[in-house]
């Protein structure tokens, strides 16, 4: 029945209307507050029932139906739209029963905006604004089933990748070109003699560490993270390593002290303040206009070294908190629309899905970092740690609360693997990473690993000195572990260390003392010079990727013939250790939940020795930065429990 625009509203209020508000899945909006205003301007607020809601005492004529905006938006935007293959059941539901006074019920389709009592604070998506179809008209003495247009329930999945100290994928690309040029010089018969010592020592002609390194496992994992599609809103954000910044020299304060504009905390703030939003706009630019709104955000967080510290800080800033920089950054970006009532502090709306850590190092000299991980901080946490790392400045922070215990949350995994810090997190060059087939200078590790000194009586032979005996014992111990294939005493103090050997360089000095016989000062330096193949770090990466894929992280399938992932060595002669067998042996370990497992300890001694000699790096040396940590007179790593966290 049409209402004439010339009618005068009736002063009597003895009419009724019946409404039943439902979504496309034919579910009610029970509990929502609806305000109905009749032709006389009288408003009534009622609470919607599970079925029809009868409202009486209305003036005859048109009635407006509006719902309290914020609660209504929160409810409506949580209701999923029908899929293309589905058909609405609301019309059949409408015809199944009669309304009040046995009137025939009427089916009306509306949008969220049609029923908003006030204008939403944030503009609604285009297809959900008021008046998208013919505006609904409701008349007294009618019974209406009101079907509200549903939403595409959208989950935004964000992978955040915090690289390790002095690692920067973008600067690596610049450095690689210089390394390739250096290798060509080492190959050239004319230039080779001039650069002989530099080529033999593997002394790359680069100032910044970030330019000397290959892409780490964080950079590679970032590349393996899937791109977005129409059906999967996926974004990945790469955060360069502590101490590095694009277009700038490496920062010593960031590298050495985890302080300043390139510290781990600064990297977390950078990710939240700008990087993540920039990547959302860049990678989802073609998809955002067609998205109604984002209903949930899920994070996968990865980190290596102090980047693992940053990853843990990032988790603690986001989990169940609404006071971080990312909240403001997304709120200020008009192209990113979150559902009404999106609650950053609720794990229903924001959840850390996966945390993947490569050998966490905190080492902040000025303030404590919040790296303690709560047992429920994420759906899944995997930590891979280095068994052959013992530098003073590279203390390990575990994800379990007691280093002496294997007790760990049921969805955590902590694995100890052979290798030094960057053997786990990556960054060493492989022959597959370089164009020049003669890559030895880029793979050479030459370093002084220990200095021994003693004062002896005049006339003492150097080989009888305390320094010499201590150095020889130390060298023999290194030999037994596989760091060389023999021990050699260099013939002169200026002789080059011998390739593959643990070398001893002996120096003597007679110090004059007035009126006394001159004592003899003996210094013995223990050196390594080895060509170390660079494929091993791909095994920890593979373990992490498969553990993440098992937990639903959107990584590409592992392709063993990808040059960045290949385990088969290109060295001649071929190494004795078959990395593909180790990879197969260890791969499932990352998927095992609630375990603490030492894969290094389980490795046969002879295999471990060959592995050290051919593939593992000796990160500690006699310098100040990489000096070894000592516990009870032996080289051993300092371990920090999860609850201690911090420095």
Largest sheet: 7 strands, parallel
How many structurally independent domains? Answer: 3
How many H/I helical runs? 17
Helical amount: 10-25%
In what range is the share of β-strand residues?
A: 15-25%
Task: Count all strands and give the number.
Answer: 23
Low-confidence stretches: none
Overall pLDDT level: 92
Strand order of the largest sheet: 10-9-11-12-13-15-20
Structural class designation: alpha/beta
Instruction: Provide the gyration radius in Å.
Output: 34 Å
Shape, per Cα inertia axes: elongated
Distance between the termini: 77 Å
Concise structural overview:
With 647 residues, the protein is α/β, with parallel strands linked by helices. It contains 17 helices and 23 strands. It is 25% helix and 22% strand.
Structural write-up:
The protein has 647 residues and is α/β, with parallel strands linked by helices. It folds into three domains: 15-151, Immunoglobulin-like (Sandwich); 156-167 and 213-430 and 535-640, no CATH class; 444-531, no CATH class. It has helices at 69-76, 90-96, 169-187, 189-194, 196-201, 209-212, 217-224, 252-257, 264-283, 306-318, 325-331, 421-425, 440-443, 466-481, 538-550, 579-586, 605-615; strands at 15-23, 33-37, 43-47, 53-58, 62-67, 106-110, 138-139, 143-148, 154-162, 233-239, 294-304, 350-358, 380-386, 396-397, 412-417, 444-456, 487-489, 502-510, 520-531, 595-598, 630-631, 634-635, 639-640. A seven-stranded parallel beta sheet has the order 10-9-11-12-13-15-20, with helices on both faces. A four-stranded mixed beta sheet has the order 4-1-8-6, covered by helices on one side. The longest helix is centred in the middle third of the chain and has 20 residues, at 264-283. It is elongated and about 125 Å long. It holds the Pfam family T6SS_Tle1-like_cat. Residues 337-430 form the T6SS Phospholipase effector Tle1-like catalytic domain. This is DUF2235 domain-containing protein. InterPro entries: Tle1-like_cat (IPR018712).
